[in-house]
Amino acid sequence: MKTSLFNDTIEDIRRAARIIAEGGLIAFPTETVYGLGADAFNGEAVSKVYKAKGRPSDNPMIVHISSKDDLYKLAEKVTPDMEKLMDALWPGPMTMIVPAKSSIPKVTTGGLSTVGVRFPSDPVAQQLIEFSGTAIAAPSANLSGKPSPTTAQHVIKDMDGRIDGIIVSHNCQVGIESTVIDMTGDTPMILRPGKYTRANFEKVLGKEVDLDPTLNKGPEEFDRPADFKPKAPGMKYKHYSPDADMIIFEGDMDKVEKSIAERKQQLESQGKKVRVIEFGSDEEAARDLFAQLRQADDDGVDMILARGLRSEGLGFSVMNRMLKSAGFNIEKVK
Ligand code: TXA
Ligand code: MG
């Protein structure tokens, strides 16, 4: 298949939107990561997304809308809490899990009776959705298991020849995927942490919000493997993984620095190519983590060494991706 490259001009976005409306696949930027979009109401188009990504079909898609009102076309029921969240945090990096209307194809919801809905703030994404005249089902535009793409180059590398077109635009500012919050239970529950944190949601709702207890833990931390069951099918254990091996060092800052330096030297003396990844702030870590993992693979790195992030706020969310990238390979420095 020939993949067309589009610019982020109005004319080109209109062309790309027509392809979506006709059942094709288009990758596009959002404020979080690039998405791979299809008409959410066209089951055949959505099944092509699973194929292009090599993704298991039990993993549901997020449905992207270009106005708050569109939520009422997708959700069977909209509660006052959902309205509070969308008024405060949309457009932006929040996905709400809501009861799904039966008009949404099962292939889009991965067979669930709920649907994840997001109104992105990126103007290119908004125009694409609006011009397509539909809602756009879109997972991240990476091959399944690889780090999510935060630049058009990442998308071209993974998807060239597999989809109809790519909108080549700016790099993504947030850099990790949206916070997924399940609004279908008695207490809202964060299924995937992101830029919006538990504190943000609790402030808007004026009540307690739960975290999926499996977050930032590996299966080994549960008594029985059956206890380890992330509620978002896509949050299963191995994910976001670079080809290189990766170790996360946790503990006292000075000691961690020293351990990383020693390990680097030791591995290099064995002829290994080592990359140390470091960030100036949690925001920078979110923005650059996936790009750095991909760069390490492009450079043929054997081992990535990283310092763990603090376990609150945005640091907790980025750490969630880092732990998965490293397959929970943690070294506690004493
Ligand atoms: O920032 C984002 O959310 C990006 C951009 C493109 O918008 N999209 C994205 O999609 O990250 P994806 O498919 O890579 O991740 C969607 C996550 C998966 O973990 C999936 O299992 C979960 O959301 N999810 C989607 N619908 C769900 C549902 N109805 N119930 C529970 N989890 C759901
Ligand atoms: Mg993804």
Instruction: Give me the Rg, rounded.
Output: 20 Å
The overall strand count is: 15
Beta-strand share of residues: 15-25%
Distance between the termini: 53 Å
Question: What is the H-and-E element order?
Answer: EHEEHEHHEHEHEHEEEHEEHEHEHE
Q: What topology, given as strand order, has the largest sheet?
A: 1-8-2-3-7-4-6-5-9-10-11
What percentage of residues falls in helices of 4 or more residues? 25-40%
Low-confidence stretches: none
What's the pLDDT, averaged over the residues? 95
Largest sheet: 11 strands, mixed
Shape: globular
Q: Helical stretch count?
A: 11
Quaternary state of this entry equals single chain
General description of the model:
The chain has 334 residues and is of the alpha/beta class. It is built from 11 helices and 15 strands. The protein has helices at residues 10-21, 43-53, 71-74, 80-89, 106-109, 123-132, 152-159, 198-205, 253-269, 282-298, 313-325; strands spanning 4-6, 26-28, 35-39, 62-64, 94-99, 114-118, 136-137, 165-167, 179-182, 189-192, 210-211, 245-251, 274-277, 303-307, 330-333. The strands form 2 sheets. It has an 11-stranded mixed sheet, sandwiched between helices. The chain starts with a strand and ends with a strand. The mean pLDDT is 95. Bound molecules: threonylcarbamoyladenylate and magnesium ion. Residues 30, 32-33, 35, 59-62, 93, 95, 97, 109, 112, 114-116, 118, 120, 138-140, 177-178, 180, 191-192, 231-235 line the site of threonylcarbamoyladenylate.
